[in-house]
């Protein structure tokens, strides 16, 4: 009998790709999502790719009763991959209480229910934001966690602390926090991808929406950083590689291969690309000219961040396989599919 895995926020960008990866490995997936920042249409994309419908629960994890009912309905859940969280840095600065409620209370309620079960195999969606501007590059898991630049970043730090404390107190609790760098791209089928509601907060959707004519031009925030071309450097990881890492981490816990009952791994490619490099690569792989302008630096942006992936490579036996070209190509293919759907709906 295949393990039943709960994927919270499973209709979001990374959650949906992970649901696909899980189903392709034979897991039975239960997706819980309140559709606040996602679309129920994504279910159809997951089913089309995997030829299997995941179970879907439209529930709000901020409601303690909803979480309780979820576990009563699915008492045989063997693992949880927790994505459900608000993730826009700017919005978190403007509305911190929303972020603390959404990102912290949902985690606590999930862990309380798992405590009732007596054991947990828990994968936490964390972020490289916990490192701030690291003192050394590439960034290893031993780099100090710095004071968060935003309430969003703080919720990831607090989430990790809650998990560490819970695992320490409860011997049968096992958890892994995955600190991702910058997830981009889409499933190669273009049946699912990143679907931001409103103005995109991330670089790649803004690039693809600009290229297709939805946005007038792309703003490059600052060209005076101490980098080779003056623009910020990030570690861009293909969402399919990221999804695969979640499955590998979950199997590590299910198979009892963990070295401690709370572990942390960086997920990235180990290579940094500047904003200008991303723009030029996008133009090269798609043949699309991208209108952009240099704007002022954006508050909270750090100069450079890319991962030391040694620990994930060696302990998880996971390594990013897809490069920037494939990621940008898939993101563009997805954007064209989104446009086609919008036009056929009108």
Automatic annotation (TrEMBL):
Residues 6-329 form the NAD(P)-binding domain. Its EC number is 5.1.3.2. Pathway: Carbohydrate metabolism; galactose metabolism. Keywords: Carbohydrate metabolism, Isomerase, NAD. Its cofactor is NAD(+). InterPro entries: NAD(P)-bd_dom, NAD(P)-bd_dom_sf, UDP_G4E. GO terms for molecular function: UDP-glucose 4-epimerase activity. It holds the Pfam family GDP_Man_Dehyd. The keyword tRNA-binding does not apply. PANTHER family: UDP-GLUCOSE 4-EPIMERASE (PTHR43725). Homodimer. This is UDP-glucose 4-epimerase. It comes from Salegentibacter chungangensis. The lineage of its organism: Bacteria, Pseudomonadati, Bacteroidota, Flavobacteriia, Flavobacteriales.
